Amino acid sequence: MRLNRVSTLFTAASLILICCLSNSMLTTALGDGSRAEWPQWRGPNRDGVSQETGLLTSWQHDEPNVLWKIPFGHGYSGISISGGRLYTMFAQGNDEYAVCLNASNGEEIWRFRTGSKFTNNHGDGPRSTPTVNGDVVFVLGAKGKLHALDARTGEKLWGHDLVHVFGSKIPRWGFATSPLVEANLLVVEVGGKDGKSVVAFDMKSGDVIWTSAIDAPAYSSPIAITFNGIRQLIILTSNGPVSVSPTDGQVYWKYHWSKGINIATPVFIPESQIFVSAAYDKGAALVKMKADSGAVTVDEVWKSRVMKNHFNASVLHRDYLYGFDNTILKCIEANTGEEQWVARGFGKGSLIFADGNLIVLGDAGRLALVEATPSEYKEKGDIQLLHGKCWTPPTLAGGKLYLRNHEELVCLDVTGGITANE
Predict the structure, then answer these.
(1) Which H or E element spans position 24?
(2) Which residues in the chain land under pLDDT 70?
(3) Were 202 and a residue from 30, 123, 134, 207 both cysteine, which residue would form a disulfide, CB within 3.0 to 4.6 Å?
């Protein structure tokens, strides 16, 4: 009896040890649970940077495995991943939808009609990326229909028609901004009349908490940062970046840039700098924040035409920015704007950073792994999976890479693991 008891205790202890080791190995590979998620535009921190490790270090002899590929509809909406589910938007027939798929196999779980189809000579369908926060997903249609949906069922919780309620005008290329969750607020650049450029909604009820009059809206998405203990929302309007308080919408500072079509998301360079860039021969600028008695001001560090991000923003790694100067992939030094290297062959592409490398997607579907180093352009393999117009940046979650165009949505295993079909 005693031997059996000892044996049982030993077996139980062994199982606990194995479970602990397994969890430790999983944590090492993926970090904490949040690293296996990409719940909003440009990832967990809205900066295009993934904290995942254990990914393929080269694609030259070990290409990513295709786990699944499904037909899909029109749209440029990015792909959000949370809780093993995939959320995005697309157009089909005369309608636009928010959709939830099983991230492991692409099977549809639910869809919700967000409005009628937006059409444009640069591509039809929705532009905004869903924002997932717990059991709620926030979606914005190209014609300005904002909805809060139950992430599990797709049931509507609340909604606003930005054009009807706030007097917003549908932008020439559709509403493209992606909603930002900040504490208990949902912040959206609505472009409304009478001081309603930006609106903060109560995340649960949809009630308006504050409105702010800043500048005419652009196509960019806001970010939230903390500088010198002061929380700020950074919004790139049609005139340049503006900082407002998330508490009441009060304007902290503005940087007056030349007016134009601004699309790319601002990049925060800790601990005190903001990088902005735009195409149409505009260029880029870096500003530095200063705090004094609770007030924040900015000084221009540099302004140059070295980087002209069009519809996708740059990513920061260490002291360098990697991004597309229209159709040229570049690396520049963040503090000076000095060009380090250039590479061609992607068109107006997009990119994210993960595990020491850049995952670069060309606008015609060329996908490449590039080492994130300022010394020189070092490509570590490329593949051609999609064709046609690929303007949506990649999404990385749990070692899986998700890509889309106007016709297909594909999932790749970038860990070098065995596919489900093998």
Answers:
(1) helix 2-30
(2) 1-35, 417-422
(3) 207
